[in-house]
């Protein structure tokens, strides 16, 4: 397995796990505050898992897409649309509410991805 594929695969797995865990609590809190009185954590997990899975699948396709495309921007846009559609249709939120919550979720998603990428780059360059 080439180093590029191995590093992309390990980054994808790490980011998927971290984003799913962190964003579960974010979306559970959002649903508790704005949608339901007591939202179970499984609803937050459903939303975070769907967005993280979409981002992971898209990041695995990075290798096969032309390098001229802004790939990270496209991955975050896919995650954003998945979250907006889930929040709007499943939890009957308005479009603007769903967009605001998805934007904040995307900010968390990008921060976790950047920190994990930086850690992985340091780990690969050290070893």
* End-to-end CA span: 17 Å
Separate helix tally? 4
Q: Given the helix and strand composition, which structural class is it?
A: mainly alpha
> What is the mean pLDDT?
81
The largest sheet, given as strand count, sense and whether it forms a barrel, is: none
Shape: elongated
State the share of residues found in helices, binned by percent: over 70%
Name some characteristics of this structure:
127 residues, mainly alpha, 4 helices, 83% helix
Description of the structure:
The chain is mainly α. The chain has one domain. It has four helices and no strands. It starts with a helix and ends with a helix. The model has no long low-confidence stretch (mean pLDDT 81).
Provide a compact summary of the structure.
It is built from four helices and no strands.
Give the helix/strand layout:
Layout: H1 3-35, H2 41-60, H3 71-91, H4 95-126
